[in-house]
Specification:
There is one protein chain. The protein is of the alpha+beta class. It folds into 4 domains: 2-181, Serine Protease, Human Cytomegalovirus Protease, Chain A, CATH 3.20.16; 189-310, no CATH class; 318-413, no CATH class; 437-465 and 476-503 and 515-707, phage-related protein like fold (Alpha-Beta Complex), CATH 3.90.1690. The strands form 6 sheets. Strands 1, 2, 3, 4, 5, 6, 7, 8, 9, 10, 13 and 14 form a 12-stranded mixed sheet that branches. Strands 15, 18, 25, 26 and 27 form a 5-stranded mixed sheet that branches. A 5-stranded mixed sheet has the order 19-28-24-20-23, with helices on one face. A hairpin with a 2-residue loop joins strand 7 and strand 8 (79-93). Helix 4 (256-281) packs antiparallel against helix 5 (286-294), helix 7 packs across helix 9 (350-356) and helix 7 packs across helix 12.
Amino acid sequence: MIRASAGNTPSSLQLVAPVGDLVAARGDAKDGEPSPRRFSITAYTGGLMRLFAWEHPVVIDLAGMEIAGKSRPVLKDHRESLIVGHTTKMEVVANELLVDGVVSGAGAVAREVVESSLAGFPWQASVGASADSVEEVAAGATVNVNGREFTGPLYVVRASKLKEISFVALGADDDTAARVAANQRKEANKMGFEAWVKAQGFELESLTDQQRKTLQAAYNAEIEAKKAAGDPPSNAPKDEPKDAPAPQLTATAANTDDIVAKIRADYQAEANRIKDIRAICAGKHDDIEAKAIGEGWGKSQTELEVLRASRPNVNSVRGNSSGSNPMAIEAALCMSAGMNEATAGKHYDEKTMEAATAPGMRGAGLQTLFYDVIAAAGGYARAGKIDNDTIKAAFRADQQLIQASGGAGFSTLSLSGILSNIANKVMLMAYEAVPSVASLIASESDVSDFREVTRFRLTGQGVFEKVAADGELKTAELSEESYKNKIDTYGRMITLTRQMIINDDLGAFLQIPRIIGRMSALKREEALFELLLSNPGSFFAAGNDNFLDGADTALSIDSLTLAEQAFLDQTDSEGKPIMLMPSVLLVPTSLKVRSQQLMTETRVNETTTANLPSPANNPHVGKFTPVASPYLNAQGIAGGTDKAWYLFANPMDVAAIDIAYLRGRRVPTIESGETNFNTLGMQWRGYFDFGIRMQDHRAAVKMKGEN
C-alpha cells in the first residue's frame, strides 16, 4: 500500500551515510595564472538512504527535484558559516545527480578541504534538500523510482528542492564519490625569502639569528611541499640554504602558520617583559634596568634586585634565616600560635600557604622572625640562642627596613608589623568566639569622634486619606524623634619581653591579645546589660506602655500574650498604631529552658494553683527567637533578677538600644607603641572604642516576672 501523503516526517533531508573515496585532480591553468580549484561530485545515485529522524529508508525521486539555477552554495557539514565554494553545473544524468563546482571560499575551511584532499583524505559528498511531498510505501509493497524497483517499508520524496551540497567526512548514499581538483599555491614560490617574511608581518632586520633560522626553515619546508605536490617553484632562491636547521621547531608545510604564530607570541612576551622591567625600575635604577633587559631577567628577579639596591645595610652580625617571604612567615607564626590551617587559609593566598606549610617553616617561632628581619636588612645573626646583641640588632634592622620601605614601595619584613597582624588575628578570633546577645537586640552605628551625638529619625504623621472629587492630595507632615549616644575607649597594653624572645615563647606573647579579644567582647556585653538593668530615664515604665508587673507576669503562655499585646498596642505621637512586631525573647539563664519550650512545643504544661500540671495549647510556638543571658541575673550588676524577661523588636527595624563605634571600626584594635628606654622588648596597645545608649522605648517590653 502506498499513501500519497506521509504524516509526521521531517521537512528536510540531511544525507549523511558513508560513500566512496575523494580523489584530488588538478585544474587547467590560463595565461600562467593559477586555475581555480575545481571538483566534480556524484551527489546522489538514486538509491535507498537511511537518514536520521526518518523511520524508514528514503528514496529521492530525481524527476521531482527542483534545481534552481546552476549556482548553489557548497558548504562543509551542511553549516552555512563553513563555506567551501559554489556549483557551476548541476544536472540529472542517467538517474544520478551530478554536480561540478569550484572551491571559491577564501577562508580556512576551503583551505582545509583542499589541503587534506591533497594529503589523501577521502572527502564525501552530501546533499541538503527540502522534502516538500513524501509518499509512504508500506511493508511488502513495491514502487518504481529513478528507474529502479524498491520494496517497502520506505519513503519516497516525490517533490524536493535542492538547497546546497556539502563536503562531509561521511556521505549519504552508498555510491556517491567526489573529486577535488586543486592547484597548489604558487604565490609563495614566486617570492623570495625576504618578501615571504615581510608578508608574514615581520621586518627581517629586527629578527634574531634564531628567529631568522626558524623562519628560513619554515619557508624552505613550504617550497619543498609544493614540489612534492607536483608544482615545483619557478624561481626558488638559489642563494639561501634549503635545509636551514630550526633550533626550536621542525618546520613542515603543515605547521608554517604555527611557527609564525609562535614567533609573534615571543615578540609580544618580550615586549611585555621589557615593559615590566622599566615600570619596576621607574627611572631610578638605570644600571639594573639595562642588565635586566640584556640578561633576560623576569619580573620577580628585577623586583628583588631593586629592593636590595633600595634598602640600607645593617652592621654585619653573623646568622641564619628562613629565607621566606614576609606573608609566609606571618602565616606560619599564626599557625604556630594555634590557628588551624583552614582558618589561616582565609587570610592568605594559596602560594603563601604553600610556603608557610613547607617543612622548614612549620613550628616557626619568634626567633625565626628575628633572624629573618636581620637577614632582610642585609645583615647576619649568629646561629644558636638569641642574646641581647641579637635582639638589639633585630630592633635596629626593623627600624631601617621600615624607613627603606617607605622610599621603595616594596613589602619588607617588619617585627612590629608582622607581630601586630598576628596579634590582631588572634584577638579577633577570641573576640568572635564569645557568644553575643548585644548584636541580636541592639542596632549598630558609626560616629566620627568622641563627642556626644544626637541622631534624628523622621516619622510620618497621619495616614492615607480619601482623595476628594477634585483630586487634591493633602500633604503628609514629617516630624523628628531624637536619640543620643557617645563612645568611650576601653583598652590595655601588651608587652613582648626580653624573656619571651629568648624563650621563643610566641604562645605567651599571644595570650595577651587573646585575653584582650575576649575581654573586649565581654566588656561590650557587660556595658549593654549594665545600661539595660539600670533603666535610665525610666525607659521601662507604665507611662511608656512597655512595663508590666504584678500577678501573672511570670513567663508563661498567658504572660507572653500580655507582653505581645502591649508591644502591638504601641502608638505614635498622634495615638496611631505603629505596627511594630516583637522578634526576640530575652530571658535570664534561669528561664532558658522554659523559653525554649514555649517557642518549640505546641502543648505546654502550665502549673495550677494546686501545683498540678495543666496541659495547654501554645499559640506562641515559633513566634520569637529565645535568647538567654547570664548578665540579667548576675549578682555583680545592679538591677539583675532571675525572674524579669523582655521582648525586643528586630533592631534593623526599630532599635531599643544602639551601639556606636568610632569611624566604622566594630572590633578591637591592636597597634604597636614605643617601649620605655630601660625595657628591652616591644609594646602594643589594644583598645576598643564604643558607646551604648537606650533609644526608642516602643521597641521593647519588660515583664517583671512576678507570680
